[in-house]
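re the bet — no i am not wrong, look at it urself. input seq straight from the record:
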Amino acid sequence: MPDLQRVFLVGPMGAGKSTIGKFLARHLGLAFADTDTEIENRTGADIPWIFDVEGEAGFRAREQQVVEEMTRMDHIVLATGGGVVMRAENRQALGSRGFVIYLHATVAEQARRTRNDRKRPLLQTGNPEQVLRELMALRDPLYREIADHVIDTDGCSPRIVAQRLLQALVVS
């Protein structure tokens, strides 16, 4: 069984990182944290506001600082934002400091899960599915580059994905 004292969840928006992460943390007896929530707590503003005021570059700089700090914490399941892998520094921190799980979801599933979500700045466009396709083309290879384990989340409840993940990790 792999060392599961630092578990980092990566994957696209809508893959279920936060929800699955909470189940996983509870079953592993670890704390749960989410980089986006931490950024919001530190700034006192939500992610869309940060994107509006500071742009994506400003948000990514904040995200990198949070990832640098939180990947050093022990006994944690950490859910990350979908774009965390776009910075090499984040990939290095995640890949070298813990067990990285890529929660994969198809573009169709991401679109279904995020269609009514107004808190995702990158999807506030006329064609969110096209944006999701473009993001997946860029990010999927980066998720896979740092992943120690990949699991598909399509068509499954977060609880089922967490249970399958726990079973797979115990067998490893």
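see?? The longest strand covers residues 99-104. told u. also The radius of gyration is 15 Å. so pay up
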